[in-house]
Write a structure and sequence with these properties.
Largest sheet: none
Distance between the termini: 102 Å
Number of strands: 0
Number of helices: 20
Oligomer: single chain
Radius of gyration: 34 Å
Structural class: mainly alpha
Length: 342
């Protein structure tokens, strides 16, 4: 139809251009071009209207997921969704707490659509690792998810693609497992005997050592600290394990201070509270935060080191007026305690 329209216009063009009368020819030519443009726009409008009538606008994918999840799920298992759509679908079902039975298939579909080059991209593996725990369940013995096992299998390529820092952080984040996932319940009402808990931990750690031997000492410290010992039942072993993990491996100053504050609040022997000084000093090396200084002063006070507590607190005094109210309040509390000491 379009070809026929253009052919007729071109055929008509010589009739519009009169060479002897140049002025008339130019005016006729300009009118012709204007008419051609108008006709072409009308033609495109007609075609667009016809296509819109034949193919009504479909709802967006987000609307489809919200209103007709089964249809979206069918598209997913037929490999009709891209990565972004699969990610949205998974996240939407989790947020709305519905169709949890879809997650395993959506996860697998996402994974199977990735090429090896795609799998080397951090954003894909990170997304899968974040939600892998939803499909893993509780295994005896513990198993890696499909995506994480792939990273371990191709670790040389991943270190090169991501860099050592990002690779190490990814591995350690994944291996910071929920104790329940390795079938350990250190605070369950019916606590298993310590030998039983250690045996389960060693089963898990043997797998780590076989596949990621460089990470086994770090993971061992983490597991014994968080998953094996019960703070109330095996107090000495728990605090020794906690001190070992925090001093050797913890890199977040806020986490170090959280545990130091727990020692301050806890009604426990001073030998355990002394460990907290190591954690606070490590935190202060990472971030010389005034709140950390006040925390150290309070712990020193509890340990009976009044002179050191007063000296430590004095280093926070010059900036205290500029701090938030909660920090000022704690400063005043600690200052009062120290000043009241004999």
């Amino acid at each position: 139809m379009l070809a026929f329209f253009i052919f007729n216009c071109i055929t008509f063009l010589p009739c519009c251009v009169d060479i002897p009368n140049q002025k008339l020819s130019i005016m006729s030519y300009q009118h012709f071009i204007a008419a051609l443009v108008v006709a072409f726009l009308l033609f495109i409008g007609t075609i667009t209207a016809q296509k819109a009538k034949e193919n009504p606008i479909l709802p967006t994918f987000e609307q489809l997921v919200a209103n007709d999840a089964p249809q979206a799920y069918q598209l997913a298992i037929n490999n009709k969704l891209n990565f972004e759509q699969l990610e949205f679908f998974i996240l939407y079902e989790l947020e709305k707490k519905r169709n949890f039975d879809y997650i395993d298939t959506l996860y697998t579909t996402y994974w199977e659509q990735l090429t090896h080059e795609d799998k080397l991209k951090f954003k894909h593996i990170h997304f899968l690792a974040e939600y892998a725990h939803l499909i893993q369940g509780e295994y005896e013995p513990y198993q890696f998810s499909t995506s994480f096992a792939y990273v371990v299998q191709h670790q040389t390529e991943y270190k090169k693609a991501w860099g050592d820092s990002l690779y190490n952080r990814f591995i350690l984040d994944y291996l910071g497992v929920d104790c329940i996932k390795i079938n350990l319940h250190p605070y369950a009402p019916k606590l298993k005997p310590i030998d039983n808990r250690k045996q389960k931990a060693e089963t898990f750690l043997s797998m780590i050592k076989a596949n990621l031997p460089d990470y086994e000492p770090h993971v061992r410290a983490y597991v014994y600290c968080y998953c094996v010992y019960n703070r109330n039942v095996e107090k000495q072993a728990y605090y020794d394990a906690l001190n070992n993990y925090l001093t050797k491996y913890e890199t977040e100053p806020e986490q170090l201070i959280i545990y130091a504050d727990e020692l301050i609040e806890a009604d426990i022997e001073l030998k355990y509270k002394k460990m907290g000084l190591n954690w606070i000093d490590k935190a202060l090396k990472l971030d010389n935060d005034i709140a950390f200084i006040i925390c150290k002063a309070e712990l020193l006070y509890q340990l009976g080191k009044i002179s050191k507590a007063r000296k430590t607190l004095s280093t926070a005094q010059p900036q205290i007026d500029e701090e938030e109210e909660w920090i000022k309040t704690r400063y005043q509390k600690v200052e009062k305690l120290i000043n009241s000491a004999k």
